[in-house]
Structures are given as structure tokens and as C-alpha cells.
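Re-running the complex after MR caught last week's input typo. The corrected sequence lines follow. Everything else is unchanged.
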Amino acid sequence: MSAAPTSTTAALPTSEQHGIKAHSDGRFGFVPVQTRNDRFKSVDVADFAPVTGREAVWKLSPVAKFTDLTAGELDGAPYDVASTPTDGVAIDWVGRDDARIGSVGAPEERAAANAWTSFEKALVITITGEEDKEITVTRAQLGTGPRGAHAIIEARPFSRATIILENTGDARITENLEIIVGESAHLTVVSLQEWNTGAVHLANHFASVGRDAYLKHVVVSLGGSIVRVNPSVRLAGPGSDTDLFGLYFADAGQHLEQQVYVHHDAANSRSRVTYKGALQGTGARTVWIGDVLIGRNAPGTDSYEQNRNLVLTEGTRADSIPNLEIETGDIKGAGHASATGRFDDEQLFYLQSRGITEDEARRLVVRGFLSEIVQHIGSKPLEDRLQAAIEAELRSTDEVRAPAPTEEN
Amino acid sequence: MSVLEIKDLHVSVETDQGTKQILKGVNLTINEGEIHAIMGPNGSGKSTLAYTIAGHPKYHADSGSILLDGEEVLTMTVDQRARAGLFLAMQYPVEIPGVTVTNFLRTAKTAIDGEAPAIRSWIKDVRQSMTNLRMDKSFAERNVNEGFSGGEKKRNEILQLELLKPKFAILDETDSGLDVDALKIVSEGVNRAKANTGLGILLITHYTRILRYIEPDFVHVFVNGRIAEQGGPELADRLEDEGYDRFLVDSNVG
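Corrected-run output:
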């Protein structure tokens, strides 16, 4: 099974086949994108038409609420970042001519391209050294004016680190982050969104994982008005490995979105995508789109993606769309799962029948549901902090939730 | 001395075909320290009685009452009933993902007692009870009932019975699906709980098998939503020989 049989190759669609190439009459020149990897890319905002909200990448987003980020002029100047000096981690601002910029990915939509066109300098976090280390890089003073930004995390070959990108305060920002995971490097990147109410954050993360390297990527979105963090990971080297985790908790009026894309582009690569979210309050909205592409040159791929949503109150909406595209039959496994549901009444009854109050039983169930993600982060202080943040969200559930009907019997 | 009294209890349940009356006037008094076995054919309403006492929202008490030491149980919420001293060991305990047995037990104990248990003696009690029920230490860190076998789930129920120390326990078909070794272990746990706390027990079962290990003081035969006959342990022996056929002649329960 190491080489695809000729007959299989011959059966695959060819460009001559009807419907794949443009019709010769010229009237129907539009050809839909045939594979996830063929989407239009450009670093120049002028190459993208104004956003209408009908585009595939925008159709589930409230685009009217951030036209300043997709169509307006952005402040691309460097901003304040805070971190504790750590051996083996260098943080610098570099010019647009730095060779690493653009080496991993390019925008597929207008907000990302607007950021790319606008940034003056890129923030670069460079990791060296084989010992484990952890660093938190905090942005807390982005202000309320529209910004565009660019950042790079480079884990040199054989290096190991956990990078926590902490986001608090006000913000209206669109940005791109390129993550380079060198050969045999072991990198954890946690993007933590604890913005103030009203913040808008549009981010695209592009990662490339080298030979025998590992990337753990975690998106935690709790605060902000509109938060859209879209990670794309290309498993570029043989034996590359990635775990993508997501944890989100949408309150009334909050829009939390993540479009995840994993591209298996080398042999024996492995990916796991696990996103879990809770929704409470009128207008709480979450979007998860999970695309996995197993390329022709990725035999031996092992892939699984799943999304779970727990609906805590009326008036919420969760979109969950897994897509799996497989170009080679020679794989170990590929699967996907998605489920969105409300509380299981039998679970509540069981807990209450042991004396636990209804409110506490709900908290236990939600905490249990989300802790699967928290437990995988791998940083004990951060795990404890997130458990506390989830507790705080849950306490507000009690205020949001309509009073339970009194029992009639 | 505690007493649980069920008086002329009528219970219905909503089904797709409309409201269905299941309990049709149940009268039963259980004193502290007594073991009552309720036996009956499938569909006679035994489990409905168990869930109604525990307060499952699916079951509606249309009339009658359940009194625990004179207090009306039917107006209490599910958790209030548990804190008042009632316990239901379920036939099909549910899984609670992400919640460990340790965390669950401590939370439940704190809720029942109104204060957190003293850590050192609590850990000792939990370990001792788990050892008695031949539960491996690793159970403590597993999520509640997740991936447990049928027998492990039942042992976990009895573990809770031993640790939460209710005044009255309802055991709903605790014997179902257990092999003879597991049945003995679970029965020992129930007998130990009774010896330690002197609780009253309502033992619901389809078969007489468990009555070899847990000896009832009273046996009630449940047919078509009410008690058709009652007696001492000898009634169980008779059922063992004759089955439920003679009770079913005049009823519409198949």
C-alpha cells in the first residue's frame, strides 16, 4: 500500500473532466474551490473584494460589526507586551523584510490581509534550548482603535517550550500569527482570550510542523464581544504531530468562533482536534468549523477531530461543522464527531439524589465537561487559573438562567 | 426512631400515549432497622415506587402522601429528600463525565452533612469502604460510572450508601446483572451499612436470589400498581416455588 495503484490514480478526477474546468462557452467562468488547500491567498488587502457576509469564511460571522477591521485603515504600530525574561526565549520586533514573515502562511480573507498590509513591525518570539520552559506574553493595552498586527513564534529544532499568549483589556484587532515548529521541537502555544466586554479580536494562526516535531495548540476564549481565532496547521514533516484543543464559554450576546484547519502534508503525521464549548444567555453564539485535509503525500495519517457543545440556557446558537477531505486511501485512521446538546436531566437527577443542589449539580456537570480540555494544557498554574475562570462564568449562569419551575408534586 | 410511611399513593407518568396511571393506592410503613422486600413481576410499578420516593421529575404523585418522620416528602426537591435521609441505589446509574468518584463523594457528603467532612477520617472511611467492596483504589480517580462494568456500577452505589449513611435506602433491582460473587459482595455491603447505622431498607427485586444474602423482615408482593399480598420471609420462599402466576390471573399485567 505504499504506492497508490495506477488504477486508483486513473479513476481520480482530471482537469479535462466535465465540471472541473471552466466551460468553454465562457459564460460560467466561475469554478468552485475543489479542495481546502486551493483557496485564494494573498497578503494584499486590495486583492480581496469588500466583505459581504456571504463568503464561505464569513457567512457565520457578524461582519457588519467590524467593517473597520475588514475595510478600514489599521494602526500597525508595535504595542506594549509584558513578559518575564526567560532563558531560551527571545522577544523582538522585526521589520517587514524579515525572512520568516510569510514563510508559513498567507491570508485567505480580507481582515487577515488588511492586517498583513498594515503592520509596521512583527513581534517575534524565538525559542532555543532543549530544556522545558514556560513564558506568558501579555497584551493588556491595545486600546479601542482598530489595529493590525503580525507575530511569529519560531521554535528552533529540538527546542521545547510552552508559550502562553494572554489577551486582556480592550481591543479591536485583526492579526496573523505564524508558528514555525522546527525539526523535533516540542511546542505548546496557548492563546488565551480574556478580553473586556466589547472587544473584537480576529486572528489567524498559521503553523508549520517539521519532521518529528510536536505542536500543542490551545485556544481558550472566555471574554470579548466577538472573538474569532482560526488556527491552520500544516503537518509538513514526516512524523509530525499536533493536538489542537479549544475551550470556549459564550455568554449573552457574545460571538466566539473558531475555524480549524489541519493539513496532513507528510507521511505518518498525526492530528487530534478537540474543541468543547458552553453557551449561556440570549444571543450567545459559537461557531466551530473543523477542516481536515489528508493530502496525497500523507500516507500513514492518523487523524480525528471532534467538537462538543453544551447548551445551558434558551436563546443560544452553536454551529458545528466538521469537514474531512481525504486524497489518499493509505491512512491509519480519520474520523470526526460533533454533538451539541443541553443538560442531561438524568445526570442532574443522579447528582441531586445524592443531596447536591440543582445549581451545584449543574456546575459539576459543566466543570466536568470542560475540564477535559483544561487538563490537557499541561501548565498547572494556568489550569488552576482556568478552572477558577470557569467557576466565575458558572456563577454568572445562576443569574442568567431563568428560575427553575417549582416542583408540582 | 425514624419511620417512612407511604399512604394511599397514586402515581402517573406521561407517555406518548397520554397519561398512564401506574401506582394505584400503595400503603406501606417502614421503621428504622427493618428490611422490606418488594417483589413483583415486570411492569407492576416497583421501580415507579422507588423513583417517586426519590423525586424523579418524570413521575407525578396524583394523590396520597409519603411521610418521613411526619414530614411530607412529596413537596421536597430531589436534593432535599436526600438531605432528609433518603437514598436510592439505582438500577442504571448514569455516567458523569469529568467528575471523579473522589470529588463526587466529597461533594455529596458535604451536601448531606451541611459541612465538609474532616479530611483525614473521610479519606480513611472511603478507603475502608472501597476495600470492603473489593473496589480497586484506582476507582477513586475515575469519572463517576464512566466505563464501569454493571457490577462496578452497583458496587459504587453501595459505596455511596455506606458513606452517606441515610435513614432509609431504596435498592432498585440492585441484584440485576450481578454474578454470584458480586451479589455476595454487594449484599455484604448492604448488611454492613445496616449493622453500622440501623437504617431501614426497601429492597426492590424481581428474583428471590438476593434474599438469600439480605434477609427481609417483611415481603410485599406488588401487582398492578398496589400491594397484593404481604407476609414474612416465608412468602419469598413460596414465590420462589410458585412464581407470580397466581397473582396475575385477575390482573391485566402481562
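None of the earlier attempt is carried over here. The interface with chain B takes residues 344-347, 349-358, 360-361, 364-365, 367-372, 407-409 of chain A (CB under 8 Å). Chain A has six helices and 17 strands.
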